[in-house]
User: What shape does this take?
Amino acid sequence: MTKFKLTHTDGNARRGRLSTLHGEINTPAFMPVGTAGTVKGVFTRDLKETGSEILLGNTYHLMLRPGDKNIADVGGLHNFMNWNMPILTDSGGYQVYSLSKLRKISDEGVTFKSHLDGKEVFLSPERSMEIQENLNSDIVMAFDECTPYPATHSEASKSMKLSMDWALRCKKSFKSKNLLFGIVQGSVFEDLRGDSVKALTDIEFDGYAVGGLAVGETQNQMFNVLDFTCPMIPSDRPRYLMGVGKPDDIIGAVSRGIDMFDCVLPTRSGRNGQAFTSSGPINIRNSKYKNSEKSLDEGSDNPICKEYSAGYIHHLFNAKEMLGGMLLSLHNIYFYQNMMKEIREAIETSSFENYSTKFLSMYKN
Assistant: This one.
C-alpha cells in the first residue's frame, strides 16, 4: 500500500505528503544533493533550517568511497552523515553513464572502471539493491540505464527494455522495509514512455521517477515528455523528475504533475559565485557588487540575506575565501526551499497558476 497521500490538486499541480521511516516529506519537494554523503559546504543543521526534509545520496560514489559495508557498520548513512531525516539514493546508473568512459553493458549489469583509481567494478540490479539497503536509504531507486540524448527510436527502445528487465530484478531482490521507486525511460518517444510506465506499474513500485531527461534536450522537449508521461503514471504514487533543475524548470514540471525534484545547481552555482534571487540569478563576482550594502535578494528574509551584504560576499569571492561559496550555497538552498513552500501554499489555495505567472514574470534566467 502506498505511503503517499494526495491532499490538494490545482489543475495538474499536486500537493501531497510522503511517509518514510525517517519522517514525512511535503510535496512538491526539492532534495538537495549530497552525492558523497555531504551537501557540499553546508552543515546538516543548517540544511534543516532551510526547510529541507529529504536529501539525496549516491550509490555509485558511496560504494566506491568509503564503501557501503563501512557505512552499514556505523548504522547506515543517516548516522554516518548526522542526518536523521529521509534520504533518497540514486541507483548509480546515471553516474556509470556519465563518469565511466570505459564501460561494458550486458543483460547482467555494467562493468566499468572506477573514476577514482581505474579499478574494474561490476554493478548489477541486485548489487545496487544491496548497496542501498546497506546505506539504509528511505527511498531506493531501481537500477537503470540512462539513455543518452539524442537516441534513435531503436536505441531508446533497446535501452528502455533493458532498464525494465533490471527493474523487475530490483523488485525481486529488494528486501528492505523502505520504499522502492521505478524509473520511467524511453527518451523523447511517447510510445516507449508508455511501454515503460506499463512495465513498471505491472511490477508495482512505491513511486515512479521520470528518468532520461536533463541530459541535453531543450526545456520544451522535456515539458513535452512530461505532458504525455505524467498522466500515464498512477495518481496515487509520487512522481519524481530526476536531476531537475532550474527554478523555471521546476515551476513548469509542477504544473504538469511532478512531485519531487533534485539538482546540484543550488550548491554548484553557489560555489561558482552565482546566487538565485527573486529577479533571477546574479553573479556576485560582478564589480557592481563591490561596495553594495544591500542583501543578495531584497525580497528574501533568509538568514544569509539578513546577516551579510552582497558587498561582503563579493569580497569573499575576490579574496578566494571558502566562506563565500558556503554562504551562497546555503542562500541558494533557502531560495529553492522557499520557492517549494510557496508552490505548496499556492496549490493549497488553488492559486498556482497565478503564482507561477507572477514568479516567472519576475524571474529572468
